[in-house]
Amino acid sequence: MSRTAKIDRQTAETNIQLELNLDGEGRADLATGVGFLDHMLTLFAKHAVVDLKICAKGDLEVDQHHTVEDVGICLGQAIRQAVGDKQGLRRYGHFTLPMDETLATVAIDLSGRHYLVYNAQTPTTKIGDFDAELLEEFWQAVSANAMANLHVVLHHGRNSHHIAEAVFKAAARALRMAVEVDPRCPGVPSTKGTLGN
After folding, report:
1. Which residues contact 61 (CB under 8 A, 6 or more apart)?
2. Closest CA to 46 of 21, 25, 18
3. Contact 7, 78 (CB under 8 A)
4. Segment 140-169, tens digit of pLDDT
């Protein structure tokens, strides 16, 4: 079964085309117009071992908010579409990742219910020209549209770039675990017999 998704989202603020292959090779082809986001998503694709293609045109003359949030929306929708009915998936994933002085944990549950707990604040408001507050907005959009519980915990860290990178890499590794096929559980991994799609 192909575990892929294509999302085309057009609003008055952004125009985004996104393609995701959960069984990819870690390739990224990204043009969001936000350099730091492209950098983080390149890391995400590599560590989740997914293929990710994004072309986004947003109202960057206003600021980066709409583009970053809407890319998160599209990525969440793509994850939700690609996992399908979740037959045979591990469902849960978690990873604790060191990045120099930083240590972050991300846990995910592809439950069909969304909830974000984000405890990974950066010490600076900017990372280059990127608004650091958009990191939480991005993950909120991913969680809500993937219909997943997502918990992000920063244990310690001083460098804002390192914190963001640790979170993206840990999230990628957690997702990689959650979408793996579990040979011991061929059905839906829930006593309810179903997980929301």
Report:
1. none
2. 25
3. yes
4. 999 999 999 999 999 999 999 999 999 999
- The rounded distance, in Å, linking the Cα atoms of 41 and 169 is 9
**Which of 59, 65, 58, 75 has the alpha carbon at shortest distance from 144?**
75
| 57: three-class secondary structure by DSSP | strand
CA distance 124 to 8: 33
pTM value surpassing 0.90: yes
Q: Are 91 and 107 in contact (CB under 8 A)?
A: no
Give the chain's domains with CATH numbers.
4-178 (3.30.230.40)
The string of DSSP letters for 68-90 reads HHHHHHHHHHHHHHHHTT-TTB-
Radius of gyration of the chain (CA): 16
Element (H, E) at 9: strand 4-10
